[in-house]
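Progress report, Aim 2. The chain analyzed during this reporting quarter is listed below.
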Amino acid sequence: MSGAGAESGGDIRLLAVDDHRLLREALCELLEMYEGLTVVAQAGDGPGGVRMAGLHRPDVVLLDLEMPGPGPLANLRGIRQAAPDARIIVLTMHDDRRLIDALLSAGATGYLHKEADREVLVAAIRSAMAGGTTMFLPSARAARPEREPEPADTLTLRERELMELVAQGLSNRQIGSRLGITEGTVKRHLRNIFDKLGATSRLDAVNRMQPQRRY
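Predicted C-alpha cells for the chain:
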C-alpha cells in the first residue's frame, strides 16, 4: 500500500534515484518548486532506490538508467516489488528502442530523455498519477515547430535559477544564501552568464533572458 499521497488528495510523493548527486539534488530542488510535488527520498544507486521505495512507498519514482549495480531492469523490478503501487519514470541519455520496450513491459510508466524540458517531466509525473504513459525522445522533438535558439537557451539549470533571483533584485550575498553557495560562486556564475548572453550588467542580463519578439 502506497503512502498517503496524491490518491488521498495530498501532494504527489516522489523518490529520485540517480548516482550523480549534484544532478539529483538539482532535480529535487526544481521539483519542490512545483505545487503538489514533494520529494520524500533520494538514493544514489539501484539497491538504495529499492530500500527507499520500500521505506517511503512513493507515488512516483524517477529512476536513472545509467547507474552502477545490477542493471536497469533489475532496479526497476526491485522497486516494483518494494513499492507495487509506485509509478516508475525512467530518465536516460539513451534511446535504445529494445530497452525501452523491455522497461515498459517490466512496468515502467514513462521513459524520458534527459534533454526533456522541466515542463515535460512535471507533466509526465502528473500523467503517471492519472494512469498515463509518457515517452520523450530526442527524435520526438523534430515534430515541434522549429525556432531560432535564444542566448538564454545556453544557460544551465543552476544559472537559470540564479537569474530568477537576480530578476527579483536580490544581492549576490542573498542569492548565495538562497542557493546554498558562496558569494564568490555567485560571481563566477554571473560572469559565465554575462559571457553567454553578451550582457554588460545585471539589468542587461535580465532583459536578455526575455524571449525576443519577432515581427
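The first helix runs from residue 21 to 32. Confidence is low (pLDDT under 50) at residues 140-147. These observations will guide the mutagenesis work planned for the next reporting period.
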